[in-house]
Specification:
alpha+beta; Ubiquitin-like (UB roll); Creatine Kinase, Chain A, domain 2; 2 domains; eight-stranded mixed β-sheet; six-stranded mixed β-sheet; about 20% strand
Length: about 450
């Protein structure tokens, strides 16, 4: 890096710093859960460094802070350092800080200059590159659902909806209500302000069906760029909530009697040479590629759900008649199916995966979903017959617990080849460690109903 490195900044970051002195740069990378890891350094030091080091073991850490025995079996757990290099196109403001601070996402390489296979951003880049080698450009549009809840500092207590502007708790079953959105006005104002300072374009904010549940839609675009934005957005939204004495949570199912939070992913694929959507033919009809992509989702999503639903809580979302799918049926403009085809013109024809939870790592969730579609395209898989009617009346055909999902993931060698075999090995070990940690905890339900009755 050089002293004039600020000339490499994207326009929103340049505008944020106009007339101001940059104090600090946060050098960050997403770990397996999607937590930002890294270092905060003075701006003057960042100007002098081309890279910095972090141990590769950050990808072996569970959500509780313990460790999965995932080190390379050939070398043992020796805490090897990675080389983290900045992607200056990701430089963006941290507008909630007390001083003038930028965040910059870094990419992870080993000492030979090869991408570290367990790094989530590298996993997504690997999948995108497989598409590009076929002459395709994948495009995604994610939707982010989350809850604004009252501060919860005692894990033994239930999570409650936040208090709205009216002085009453946020109400449930008020989907698309503008009055409900107004209840969170001060928080939403800060979300918009922070997003504008960071150069992010919000396509819309709506009230969802849960008490205090909101949805933010993002413009369609490059998968890596959109995953970067979601990674940043999670922190942005949390910071906006804290300013107003509440929490933002991205848990898949934070409140027992409310709907869960999803990260619906819309997919389309463009032909790089012609710029046309390969899901639509010259006359505007649906192509074989369109059906192959759906076939890939239906075939490989059961194994990928361990990535799309990465925690024990994730599976509480897949409940009949609760705005979350229970099977892999596909249908046109049908929100009861796991795979939905939204209404659109030929150029915007897309496939929506409704299975991913908002608790998944955005890089890994998008990578896994794209990987399933890629395998469908490459293997020319055909989907089942389009489902018509209420898919909740059918049988569930997706894993219902994390252990079952991990068993399917471990058997999916074709999916491993797309995502990266070393990533698959590390991911499975870390997630099984988390599952074992969960099974070691006795829940209040067990104490209440089993202690004196069995």
């Amino acid at each position: 890096m050089t002293e004039d490195w600020t000339g490499q900044l994207p326009q929103p970051a340049t505008a944020y710093l106009e007339g101001r002195r940059l104090d600090e740069v946060e050098c960050v990378i997403a770990d397996l859960p999607g937590i930002a890891r890294g270092k905060a350094v003075p701006a003057s030091k960042f100007a002098r460094q081309d890279y910095f080091h972090l141990p590769e073991s950050i990808f072996y850490q569970t959500i509780t802070g313990d460790w999965g025995e995932a080190a390379d079996e050939n070398v043992g757990f020796i805490e090897r350092d990675m080389i983290l290099r900045p992607d200056m196109s990701t430089a963006t403001a941290a507008p909630w800080t007390a001083d003038w601070t930028l965040q910059v996402i870094h990419d992870a390489f080993d000492r030979k200059g090869e991408p570290v296979p367990a790094a989530p951003r590298n996993v997504l880049k690997r999948v995108v590159e497989l598409y590009r080698k076929q002459g395709w450009e994948p495009v995604v549009a994610p939707e982010m659902e989350f809850f604004l809840v009252a501060r919860n500092v005692d894990p033994a207590k239930d999570i409650k909806p936040m208090m709205g502007r009216s002085g009453r708790p946020a109400a449930a079953r008020q989907a698309y209500s503008m009055t409900a959105v107004d209840e969170f006005g001060p928080v939403i104002d800060d979300i918009y302000d922070f997003a504008e300072a960071q150069g992010f374009e919000i396509d819309g904010i709506t009230q969802e069906g849960g008490a205090g549940q909101l949805e933010i839609n993002l413009q369609h675009g490059d998968p890596v760029k959109l995953a970067d934005e979601i990674f940043y957005f999670k922190r942005l939204i949390r910071e906006a909530a804290l300013r107003h004495d509440c929490f933002a949570t991205f848990m898949a199912k934070p409140i027992a009697d409310e709907p869960g939070s999803a990260m619906h992913i819309h997919h389309s694929v463009m032909d790089i040479e012609t710029g046309r959507n390969i899901f639509s033919g010259p006359a505007g009809g649906e192509t074989d590629a369109f059906f192959h992509f759906i076939g890939g989702l239906q075939t490989y999503l059961p194994a990928a759900i361990a990535v799309l639903a990465p925690y024990v809580n994730s599976y509480r979302r897949y409940v009949r008649d609760s705005a979350a799918p229970i099977n892999l049926e596909w249908g046109r403009d049908n929100r009861t199916t796991g795979i939905r085809i939204p209404i659109s013109g030929p150029s915007a024809r897309r496939v929506e995966n409704r299975l991913a939870g908002m608790d998944c790592n955005p890089y890994l969730g998008i990578a896994a979903s794209l990987a399933c579609g890629y395998l469908g395209l490459m293997e020319e898989l055909r989907p089942s017959k389009q489902f018509r009617g209420d898919a909740y009346e059918g049988e569930g055909d997706i894993p219902r617990v994390l252990g079952q999902a991990l068993d399917l993931f471990d058997e999916a060698t074709k999916l491993h080849e797309v995502l990266g075999p070393e990533f698959a090995r590390v991911y499975s070990i870390v997630k099984r460690t988390e599952y074992e940690e969960f099974l070691a905890v006795i829940s209040p339900w067990e104490r209440e109903h089993l202690l004196l009755n069995v």
